Amino acid sequence: MSNRFPVTHSIPSTKAILSEIMPAYDVGRIVSCKLWSRSLNETYQVQTEEARYILRIYRTSWRTRSDIQYELDVLRHLTCKKIRVASPVLRRDGSVLHAIPAPEGERYVVLFTYAPGKDLAYNNNHMLAYHYGQAVARIHAAMDDFSSQYDRFALDLKHLIDTPLKVIEPILSSREVDWEYLLQLADKLRSMVRVLPLQQGFCHGDFHGWNAHVTEDKIITFFDFDCCGWGWQAYDIAVFRWGRRLESKEIEVACWPQFLKGYTALRALKANDLKAIPLFVAIRHIWLLGLHTGNAHDWGFAFLGDAYFDRAIKFLKGWETEFLSETKIEIEKFSSEEIKKNH
């Protein structure tokens, strides 16, 4: 055995960040550095005399260097288009990405500007959904001419359904009825998506409604593009509806029309994409189950008990009953000639 016991995931020290990482940035005198959150990556808030910054340290094997370079290209592109995003900060040597030798392996580090304002809350301000919808439309429009030399995973059915199911299966082995239901629902969703010609383009991947701050004058700045990639933009839009339904049916019913009104005021949606949104709400929830179960080796398995899966299956069954049968009927109205024409 080596001198150090192997680890799967470490938490970088704030003292080491101040002494080993931050001197590479010309940001002035640093007042504090705090571990802000632990999730898919470690996030630190760095306070200087002049401004706040967010330092992200990506988990080992979570994103490849190419994945991260693609994400940084996205942010640079949006910044050039005057879209408000938390953008990467240059190091003194002109780079934005570097690696540190963590115990579990190499980890990548990026410093971002801080998004001004406060967290978005929709429970008492449904019109905020309208402004959020407009902001999402601006991002989609600004990315129409985007390109990057770096490879990035696609937000396709493999990423959203197939890979999640592989990591969910071992944990659901003791709940055979629920596993069979999940397989049947996944097959249904795949077949329904595949017959619809849908708009593809850049997706943030996590437009659930909270990865942004808003100022008092309704200026929204987005951050956390860690789940971005090329995919169906109806999925990107559906993630907002999914997020509101997770809060409550009442909030979703109030906010979803406002979001859609705001989005379509700036960017048109075709009928097929609108019909696909209920499908992608269910697909998003399957993806989330895969995200949680697939990262349990670092986060722990305790939260993945019966109560967790009871809530998840209840959500999916309720959504299927309320929306997916009707959507299936609508899809079946397409003639083969119309589907062929739209392809």
Would you spell out the secondary-structure blueprint of this structure?
Blueprint: H1 14-21, E1 30-38, E2 41-48, E3 52-58, H2 65-80, E4 98-102, E5 105-113, E6 118-119, H3 127-142, H4 157-168, H5 176-194, E7 200-203, E8 212-214, E9 220-222, E10 229-232, H6 233-247, H7 249-266, H8 271-294, H9 296-299, H10 306-332, H11 336-342
Antiparallel strand pairs: 1-2, 2-3, 3-5, 4-5, 6-8, 7-10, 8-9
Helix pairs in contact: 3-7, 4-8, 5-8, 6-7, 6-8, 8-10
Question: How far apart lie the N and C ends?
Answer: 58 Å
Mean pLDDT over all positions: 94
Number of domains: 2
What order do the SSEs take from the amino end to the carboxyl end, as H and E? HEEEHEEEHHHEEEEHHHHHH
* Secondary-structure arrangement, i.e. CATH architecture of the largest domain: Alpha-Beta Complex
Q: In CATH, what is the class of the largest domain?
A: Alpha Beta
Q: Count of helices?
A: 11
The low-confidence runs, each spanning 5 or more residues with pLDDT under 50, are 332-343
User: What can be said about the biggest beta sheet?
Assistant: 5 strands, antiparallel
Q: Tell me, briefly, the overall form.
A: globular
Strand fraction equals 15-25%
Question: What would you call the structural class?
Answer: alpha+beta
Radius of gyration: 21 Å
Number of extended strands: 10
- Give the CATH topology of the largest domain: Aminoglycoside 3'-phosphotransferase, Chain: A, domain 2
Tell me the helix content: 40-55%
Strand order of the largest sheet: 1-2-3-5-4
